[in-house]
């Protein structure tokens, strides 16, 4: 009999694995519906939907493995990373969905959220003021106008599967929608800056690297407190706090 593996769980959602099936349980049914819609529209490989009965979505496991994880070593050949970049370009060039995604917040809204978060990080003693100030300055590069694209919105390295040098699928589309394409590229390479050249070689378009660096700082600043409050460790080696420290 297959065992039930808890892949990830917090107060908003949980993912379980039973054999070759993943069960996603989401308290926000609208978000789950949006994930199903995004997978149907995405021009890249996605998991097969076994069944969908809100608040649960059952997905078939993808072949292959991920290219690593945040805080761990990166794996795969340069060609595999380039293949991921090519898949992201295909996604970003597709007609974007009607709804805004995680990467679709306006510069003004992000600036206000970032300023408030930086203040709380310092006031609460979570991070030293100089580290926050330095990364707030770097993050400003991401706060500029952008052309809406079809974005995944949570394109962590653990969400992209490859087999050899071929992308076999991308999972977790709950934050997908219209947004800034460079947010996706930054999320994928967060903590693995040494792979950015390979990803951009496959992406095949001119990219402002200062914006990528800005998103690395911005995203890390915004999630540190949330991660701590939900039982994750952004202070682990190679994770978000180390990303912030690397901006020296």
Automatic annotation (TrEMBL):
All copies of domain Aminoglycoside phosphotransferase, residue ranges: 19-210
InterPro entries: AGP_Transferase (IPR051678), Aminoglycoside_PTrfase (IPR002575), Kinase-like_dom_sf (IPR011009)
SUPFAM superfamilies linked to this entry: Protein kinase-like (PK-like)
PANTHER family reported in the protein's UniProt record: AMINOGLYCOSIDE PHOSPHOTRANSFERASE DOMAIN-CONTAINING PROTEIN-RELATED (PTHR21310:SF40), AMINOGLYCOSIDE PHOSPHOTRANSFERASE-RELATED-RELATED (PTHR21310)
Protein name: Phosphotransferase
Species of the source: Streptomyces catenulae
Taxonomic placement: Bacteria, Bacillati, Actinomycetota, Actinomycetes, Kitasatosporales
């Amino acid at each position: 009999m297959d065992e039930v593996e808890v892949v990830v769980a917090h107060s908003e959602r949980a993912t379980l694995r039973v054999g070759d099936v993943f069960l996603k349980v989401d308290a926000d049914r609208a978000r789950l519906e949006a994930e199903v819609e995004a997978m149907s529209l995405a021009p890249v490989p996605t998991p097969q939907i076994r069944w969908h009965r809100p608040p649960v979505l059952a997905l078939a496991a993808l072949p292959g493995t991920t290219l690593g994880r945040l805080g761990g070593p990166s794996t795969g050949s340069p060609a595999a990373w380039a293949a991921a970049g090519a898949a992201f370009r295909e996604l970003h060039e597709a007609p974007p969905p009607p709804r805004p995604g995680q990467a679709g917040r306006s510069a003004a809204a992000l600036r206000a959220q970032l300023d408030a978060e930086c203040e709380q990080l310092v006031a609460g003693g979570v991070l030293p003021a100089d580290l926050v100030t330095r990364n707030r300055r770097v993050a400003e590069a991401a706060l500029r106008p952008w052309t809406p694209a079809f974005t995944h919105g949570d394109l962590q390295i653990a969400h992209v599967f490859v087999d050899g040098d071929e992308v076999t699928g991308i999972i977790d589309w709950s934050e997908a929608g219209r947004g800034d394409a460079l947010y996706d590229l930054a999320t994928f390479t967060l903590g693995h800056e040494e792979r950015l050249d390979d990803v951009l070689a496959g992406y095949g378009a001119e990219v402002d690297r200062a914006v990528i660096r800005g998103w690395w700082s911005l995203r890390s600043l915004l999630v540190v407190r949330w991660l701590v409050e939900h039982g994750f460790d952004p202070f682990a080696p190679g994770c978000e706090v180390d990303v912030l420290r690397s901006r020296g």
